[in-house]
Predict the structure.
Amino acid sequence: MMLPIYGIVFWVFAILFTYLRSKDETKTVLTTIIKMTPAFSAAVFILLSGNALFYILLAAALIFCGLGDVGMEINILPGLGLFLVSHFLFVGNFLTYGAIGATTLSLTAFIVCLGALLLYLFFYFNYIKTAEDAMPGPFLYAAVFYGIMITLTTCSSLLLWLSSGALLGFLPFIGVLLFVTSDSMIVIKEFHHKFKYDEELTLLTYYAGIFLLSLGAVIFMF
């Protein structure tokens, strides 16, 4: 699947689902299929781009994102669990290949990024706790663990970019930052307060995030 064709397929379904959800369309099998199609099309694009372990793990991570899309239509907890698996795959993949050409600069950037995002998590969850209806304890612990994993995904994507020296290596890193933004907004709207265009913003930042992550298939050559 060539990049232009993949891009069209991805964004047609991403924008269509965002539109349907913004209109409060009832959850159906069809809307769920539309929702998960971008992530699965990303996996197909990656597998057609190469057969090295890097591509396989990247595609597997995005398949679990697609499964997470399905899970979120049922309940936030199974969705969270499936996305958690995707982040284990992202982290293992990015750390493995990021370590290959690691330098003092890239390792320092990894540590600084880790510290900054852990600090963000601390203030973020303290903010979430100020909601009138407190987040249930078990879910809070699960959300914190998920937050740590997506933090590792972010930092490992930075390590991969800086270690590889790829010209456009920053795009997957920005993709993970958009993923973080989307997840942060989801927790706010679910457990703190609703805000204007919350569905549109969470979906579009999520889709943009996984699209940029998928471009790792043509940016990093292994």
